[in-house]
Amino acid sequence: MTSRFEWLTIDSVDPRRLADFWCDVLGYVVYADKNGAAVEIGPDPEEPDEQRLAALRGGPAVPSMVFVRAPEAKTIAKNRLHFEICPIDSDQQTELKRLLALGASTADVGQGDGRSWVVLADPEGNEFCLARSLAPGEFEL
């Protein structure tokens, strides 16, 4: 028996704002919005729910994300868990400019200079890393 990683829950002062940011970053869509108290996002579903459930049961799937309202803002400390994202159709610098325009900011978590990744923070201060590009010509096996 095994389990599947179905979604990641993130506390947020403004769940809809953070969900919209991550939809723009990842190309996701909103699955459900419970009056702004909880917002679930995920890949644009191309199949009916029963087919998505069958695929989820059949093997690894891309998890959705759920943003839930929390009364307090993020504390000033490095996240113990964070996303690593990779551009798929542009180089890293082009994607960095796009993410900053969407509302991300650069972050210093003690990573030092000369790293191949860029540490960023979403609009509520949750760190994530922009890693290498997977675009054709940028990354080859």
From TrEMBL:
<dbReference type="InterPro" id="IPR037523">
    <property type="entry name" value="VOC_core"/>
</dbReference>
<feature type="domain" description="VOC">
    <location>
        <begin position="4"/>
        <end position="133"/>
    </location>
</feature>
<protein>
    <submittedName>
        <fullName>Lactoylglutathione lyase</fullName>
    </submittedName>
</protein>
<dbReference type="InterPro" id="IPR041581">
    <property type="entry name" value="Glyoxalase_6"/>
</dbReference>
<dbReference type="InterPro" id="IPR029068">
    <property type="entry name" value="Glyas_Bleomycin-R_OHBP_Dase"/>
</dbReference>
<dbReference type="GO" id="GO:0016829">
    <property type="term" value="F:lyase activity"/>
</dbReference>
<dbReference type="Pfam" id="PF18029">
    <property type="entry name" value="Glyoxalase_6"/>
</dbReference>
<keyword id="KW-0456">Lyase</keyword>
